[in-house]
Amino acid sequence: MAAKVIVGAQWGDEGKGKITDIMAETATAVVRYQGGNNAGHTVVVNGDEFKLHLIPSGILHEDTLCIMASGTIIDPNCMKDEIEGLRERGFSCDNLLVSVNAHVIMPYHRVLDGLQEQSRGNKSIGTTKRGIGPTYTDKTARMPRSIRMADLLDDDTLRSMIDDQLAQKNVLIRALYGAEPLDAGEVYDEIAPALDVVRPHIADVRGDIRNALENGELVLEGAQGTFLDLDYGTYPYVTSSHPVAGGACLGTGVGPTEIDEVIAIVKAYTTRVGAGDFPTELHDKTGERLRERGAEFGTTTGRPRRCGWLDGVALRTAAEINSATGIAITKLDVLDEEETIRVATAYEIDGERYERMPENLDMLGEVKPVYEEMPGWQTSLCEVTALEDMPDEARRYVDRMAELADCDIWCVSVGPARDQTIIL
Ligand code: IMP
Questions:
Q1: For 156-179, what is each residue's pLDDT tens digit?
Q2: pTM greater than 0.90
Q3: Are 83 and 108 in the same domain?
């Protein structure tokens, strides 16, 4: 009986999908605990690339149960497209379940996400416009008749709930944003084609999660990353859920003492999509090189990601917030060509030194990273299979990352394929 949490230690896109896929091989179940199709996981299996936004990366192991728990939110059309896409490539998806309590991202949530972003003007967050914020807002506002997955099981219930929802939403859409109201019939028609595909997967998953935990290893998969967390991220430039390890308990109903490992996934450098402070961001040729070598373009929106050096202050803070027991270092090979690598090990604000990210987020825009320089290895790591075989410079770099996080290295990834992973 064991539960492991996989959590992003930065601003998302750390490579959690690949690590989840590896852990899924021996897991009884992989459970996603928060977020929706704002995420983007890329997994490469035998040269084949799989891009998923919603379904846990564990789906590629047919003996592993994959669950979207109650903390997630589901766009039925996205779920349908992913199930059909996987079926076309030979994966049955019979091992996929989604909680009756997961809230549904409806077409009006997507419309509201777009309108809200527009109304924020130059303070826009840069959301993925997938309806994430408005769906979680309805959930926490306890909006009467908010639609959950169980409500998709019956057409009449669903139609009447859409009517009720639009009675409120159209007031907002018209009066606050001056936009065209939505038609209930059209909203129903938009999601209707997904219903037959999605319905067989809707389940009361409490028992499934418990059985998986009692009979083997449960992997709880987070989306996004620590600094996009609603409470612990760089608010308001965050997502509307809880990617931190604590969110795994909230989103799945697995209690904190049942979690024995928390693996913080950390890219060997830093990226961020959307707006918000980013102390180690590079606006030069090095930043461009990292973007090109790391193919740092959003899986969900295609936006170029902002790139920068590893932020050791953020890593230390993330390791603390998540009680990380180990780090999985990803994309180390992206640094292969660098002559010198910089790592921020502290921040300075008005001459004062900070070892962890300040809680007062107004200060984050003011910080000056204090950099440590390390020599690069300037050779390809993509075929290295053991830490001992790494050039000394690369070995020193990963050891420094573990030191900053104050925990062990769980694995080091040196390429996109499953076998380009050194597991310790
Ligand atoms: P939302 O989650 O679509 O509301 O977007 C809120 C913020 O989180 C925006 O800055 C997005 O770019 C960012 N974000 C959401 N999901 C991801 C992700 O999977 N990776 C990286 N950034 C993300």
A1: 999 999 999 999 999 999 999 999
A2: yes
A3: no
